[in-house]
Design brief:
The complex is a heterotrimer of chains A (208), B (264) and C (503). In chain B, 69% of the residues lie in helices and 3% in strands. By secondary structure, chain B is mainly alpha-helical. Chain B folds into two domains: 137 residues, no CATH class; 74 residues, no CATH class. In chain B, a hairpin with a 2-residue loop joins strand 1 and strand 2. In chain C, helix 15 links the parallel strand 15 and strand 16. The chains are: A mainly alpha (208), B mainly alpha (264), C alpha/beta (503). The complex binds adenosine-5'-triphosphate (ATP) (2 copies) and magnesium ion (MG) (2 copies).
Chain lengths: 208, 264, 503
């Protein structure tokens, strides 16, 4: 393949066509991978659900991968929000057990990650930032599920809600945060990100 | 997944309605159901939705195909609600962290039906809505920025291809000696490797698709639309129908005295 | 020029000392390009693999680089006297991969996409679209026909229609017929001709085989790779004149000159060895059975074939016939949907008679497969590492890799990223990766597409050597010269069995 896209990238914050398409596909691909994993995941989650339902929160991080991954790759304001919303839309189209409310959870999870990157003024995309963003997305996911009227855990007792939120936050940090960070570095190593601000992600320092 | 993404050949009435009108109807229903966990409002809405599945172009078989995973999921949600919600009334089961009382069982049942009704509404919506029409409506009528809407639409089209790609990449890796046989750990590693391969392919494909789109002039501020997104009289009926189902669910629950607002 | 051509203003190109170096490369892809293309001219752009043809086309379409860090441009390249990047819609580019050429999921919408982006009024769009679809021979389809249900060849036509509907002043086609069967090649070429006759637009087409386009173009330009220090244009002139005068020079530059097949090493031993692999009443399909007992409708069934040591087997057939599906099944990568693939004891060497059940490690030492789409098989970030994957898994050294790099002319790219190679270079690399594992049976899906004459001859010679040494070679190909060099037996698959309801 030769050209990637027109117009300069640099520190420009406006989205190019290639940013939009790659971000959207990233979100959708996250959905497909998750979909391919889910038979195995169901095997794991059914007994967990039978034993102590809040533990299923440990698995929730998978849904928040697009938010963190999208931002780590595109590095433009709004990327986390956009990717997670698109991922939720994709899930809606493929058939979601949450109905339209999946859009609300997508928006909120994306917002969680977005706020962290915004607080870092879209300058830090290292491991701590990713973990934090993942945890924030997880936190918002847990809050949404526990306190929004459409949340699936709305009727739980307070202690169970709390346990669930801790689980989603941890899961968000580990699965969405750490995994996305590692995936971005691996992607950068293949040269696939050559037209994005993250092209050098593989050689960036881990902590600063 | 391909079939889900294309409505080719469907002549059902609701496929002709504007996606925004249909969405509005589903929003009404979802909103009312979200306000309360009770089995009366949920089953009223569920019945209303089931009466419409033909209009959305579904057959009984298709409905079952798409419906059973939703039932499983809703049952899981019902179970966890039943064991974890605050107890009231007679205790039916008490085993350590689990306890089910009459009150919590009723809540669990209501929760399950509610989840099902919410999910089914969206399933009906999506089975009579072509993503292209939805994008057209979002960009032309809801005035969302067209670059984002169409960029996403183009990426969505690759979804079906990605599912195929998953299989192809699996084969290609096997042909290179990186297989998915062996112990669970080896399999997990192979799975991760394959996911990674898919991700790389996804980024490459999307980058190339972006070039294709730009090579066809995409990305400017102004564009025209070959297909106009319009509202018709049908859309009025669709919105009214959604409102009607929502109102009926509410009225039935209030009349039966089961209305149970979640935020009270 | 017919009346409907009104509104198309043919574009002119002018390059002065233009050059481009890709990010991460030390040598420019194009260097010192001086070229003028008059409005309305039709140019066939030739050159060896990696000569920078695609790079130039992307630059003309205004989609080159931009975001890439470290890419380097020199000189000027102008479209109607201004930089191509700012002139959206003046040039329409058709890239090679048909799958990423399709943007939307309905045929009519996809063809209209370009025109919409140029803000053409609605009424006019549909008129352009209908005309363009008719030009490329797709007018038989409904406008809402799903694009995913088109075959590879039809997708390529649709991509062309999308570009024609934009009414660009400059039509840029990058190997538009690479994956088509012989009948499809002529159809697409004629579609281009018809449309140009109508609009009078300028054309630049890249293709390795001259014969197809010779009569449609009025000028041939041959590029040579950048980094040689010489100007980019090697030859330039009217087709007949260039072909008559500089046939030898062209052949040396890796161009396919009509009537001239590059010299290859002849087969030394004709006899065939023992059967290694056989297909018995085989039915093939990509789709896996959805439920137990309900097999998918196979694309092909009742295939019988034998693969013998030291013998070539060539698989041919129209686009969409199921050739690739068959090759993958034979190679033990897809499960047969009926019948069986049996490995002889000599090949299996203790691994069982069904290749599909072998472990990956056992597979690569016995059967090597080259996919139709090279990129699917790349698993590392460097050409050299890519070649080492096979030998390393088998616990062998890397001597063979050095030789392969040299023979397939990839040595200057050893540290490059496989994904950034040119189309032809990717193909060579994917073939080389399989050769490096030295399997007993080679299964090659379109091994010669997009190859210039030089690397083509090298590959054919290499395979003829392997055949003489007792390797079996199965190739899926539309390439008759290639089949002639390898000899052996042929298997022709008829048109695929279509599922009920498919158009
Ligand atoms: N994105 C890229 N990054 C780095 N190098 C590149 C990139 N694209 C192409 N190249 C290199 O630039 C050179 C010219 O490539 P180009 O694709 O223009 O060749 P080509 O003439 O089209 O060859 P082919 O006939 O094989 O398609 C090649 O050596 C290739 O490896
Ligand atoms: N990944 C896939 N999943 C499902 N069906 C596919 C897939 N790839 C191809 N097909 C279908 O299977 C049939 C056979 O495809 P195949 O790729 O084997 O054809 P082919 O003979 O190799 O064609 P070509 O000459 O275009 O490469 C086609 O009708 C095609 O639409
Ligand atoms: Mg090329
Ligand atoms: Mg094929």
């Amino acid at each position: 393949m030769t050209g990637i896209s027109a117009r300069a990238a640099g520190t420009n914050n406006s989205w190019r066509v290639v940013d939009i398409v790659v971000a959207a596909l990233m979100a959708v691909a996250g959905g497909v991978i998750f979909w391919a994993w889910s038979p195995g995941a169901n095997l794991v989650s059914a007994p967990v659900n039978a034993v102590y339902p809040p533990l299923t929160g440990l698995y929730a991080g998978g849904w928040m991968v697009p938010a963190v991954l999208g931002m780590l790759i595109i590095r433009k304001p709004g990327a986390a929000l956009f990717c997670e919303t698109v991922a939720a839309t994709g899930e809606l189209i493929m058939g979601s057990q949450y109905g339209l409310t999946v859009l609300a959870s997508g928006l909120l999870q994306g917002l969680g990650a977005e706020l962290v990157f915004a607080a870092l003024r879209y300058r830090r995309f290292n491991l701590p930032a990713s973990l934090l963003a993942g945890a924030a997305a997880g936190l918002f996911c847990g809050l949404n599920d526990s306190f929004a009227p459409w949340g699936w855990n709305i009727a739980y007792e307070a202690a169970d809600k709390f346990a669930y939120i801790v689980c989603t936050a941890v899961s968000g940090a580990v699965i969405a945060g750490a995994l996305s960070w590692a995936a971005t570095r691996a992607l950068a190593r293949t040269g696939a990100l050559s037209s994005f601000a993250s092209r050098k992600a593989a050689t960036e320092p881990v902590f600063s | 997944m391909r079939q889900v993404l294309s409505l080719h050949g469907s002549t059902a009435l609701l496929t002709r309605a504007n996606p925004l009108a249909k969405s509005a109807a589903v929003v009404f229903i979802t909103a009312v159901l979200a306000l309360s966990i009770d089995w009366v409002s949920a089953s009223t809405a569920l019945l209303g939705e089931l009466a419409l599945f033909r209009l959305a172009g579904l057959t009984l078989r298709l409905l079952w195909q798409r419906g059973w995973p939703l039932i499983l999921a809703a049952a899981g949600g019902g179970w966890s609600t039943a064991v974890l919600s605050a107890d009231s009334g007679r205790i039916l089961l008490d085993a350590g962290i689990w306890s089910i009382s009459q009150g919590s069982l009723e809540l669990g049942l209501g929760f399950m039906l509610r989840g099902l009704a919410i999910a089914l509404a969206a399933t009906l919506l999506m089975s009579c809505t072509d993503p292209t029409d939805l994008a057209n409506a979002l960009a032309q009528k809801a005035r969302l920025p067209h670059r984002f809407v169409l960029g996403t639409l183009a990426a969505m089209r690759l979804v079906g291809l990605m599912a195929e790609e998953w299989q192809t990449i699996g084969m290609a890796r096997r042909a290179r000696g990186i297989g998915s046989h062996g112990s669970p750990l080896q399999r997990l590693r192979a799975m991760l490797g394959q996911s990674y391969g898919l991700l790389v392919q996804a980024v490459r494909r999307a980058s190339r698709l972006a070039v294709t789109m730009e090579a066809r002039g995409f990305g400017g501020a102004r564009r025209s639309w070959a297909r106009e997104s319009t509202f018709s009289r049908l859309d009025v009926w669709v919105v009214l129908g959604g409102a009607l189902i929502a109102a009926a669910a509410l009225a039935a629950a209030v009349a039966a005295g089961t209305w149970h607002p979640v935020l009270a | 020029m017919a009346a409907s051509g009104a509104g198309v203003r043919p574009a002119a190109v002018s390059a002065r000392g233009w050059g481009w170096r890709h990010a991460g490369r030390s040598v420019p892809a194009v260097q010192g390009l001086d070229l003028d293309i008059r409005a309305g001219e039709r140019v066939l752009l030739l050159g060896a693999s990696g000569a920078g043809k695609s790079t130039l086309l992307h630059a003309l379409a205004g989609v080159l680089g931009g975001g890439d860090d470290g890419a380097d441009e020199s000189g000027t390249l102008l479209l109607d006297g201004a930089a191509p990047r700012g002139q959206r819609g003046r040039a329409g580019l058709m890239q090679q991969d048909p799958e990423t050429q399709v943007v939307l999921s309905r045929l009519g919408d996809d063809a209209a996409f370009g025109a919409e982006n140029l803000a053409v009024p609605r009424g006019q769009i549909w008129q352009c679209v209908r005309e363009a679809l008719e030009d490329v021979g797709l007018s038989g389809f409904a406008l809402d026909h799903p694009t995913s249900a088109l075959s590879g060849g039809q997708k390529q036509r649709l991509a062309l229609a999308g570009i024609l509907a934009m009414r660009p002043g400059l039509v840029l086609l990058d190997e538009p017929t690479a994956n088509l069967d012989p009948a499809g090649v002529l159809e697409v070429r004629d579609a281009v001709g018809r449309s140009l006759d109508k609009t009078g637009a300028t054309l630049v087409v890249v293709e390795h085989r001259v014969a197809v386009w010779k009569d449609l173009v009025d000028r041939i330009v041959v590029l040579q790779p950048g980094g040689s220090g010489r100007p980019a244009v090697l030859l330039d002139g009217a087709p007949d004149e260039v072909l008559a005068r500089s046939g030898r020079l062209l052949a040396a530059a890796g161009v396919w000159v009509p009537g001239h097949v590059p010299a290859t090493r002849p087969r030394a031993r004709a006899g065939a060895g023992p059967v290694l692999l056989s297909a018995e009443d085989l039915a093939v399909s990509r789709e896996r059975p959805r439920r137990r007992g309900v097999p998918p409708v196979p694309v092909q069934s009742g295939i019988a074939a034998e693969v013998r040591a030291g013998q070539a087997l060539t698989v041919t057939g129209p686009n969409g016939a199921g050739k690739s599906t068959f090759a993958l099944t034979l190679a033990g990568l897809l499960a047969p949907s009926g019948g069986r693939v049996r490995a002889s004891a000599a090949l299996a060497a203790g691994a069982g008679t069904e290749p599909f059940k072998w472990k990956a490690k056992h597979l690569i030492a016995r059967i090597g497969t080259v996919f139709q789409e090279p990129e699917h098989q790349f698993v590392t970030g460097r050409v050299h590492d890519e070649l080492m994957v096979g030998p390393r898994h088998l616990g062998r050294g890397g001597d063979v890799v050095v030789e392969l790099l040299q023979r397939l002319r990839l040595d200057h790219l050893a540290v490059a990223n496989p994904y950034t190679l040119s189309g032809g270079e990717k193909r060579q690399l994917s073939v080389a990766t399989v050769l490096a594992a030295h399997p007993q049976v080679l299964v090659l899906d379109e091994p010669t597409f997009g190859q210039d004459a030089g690397t083509w001859a090298e590959l054919a010679s290499f395979l003829s050597e392997l055949l003489d040494a007792g390797t079996a070679v199965v190739s899926v190909t539309h390439d008759e010269e290639f089949t002639a060099v390898l000899g052996g037996t042929a298997l022709r698959l008829g048109p695929a069995r279509m599922e009920a309801g498919a158009a």
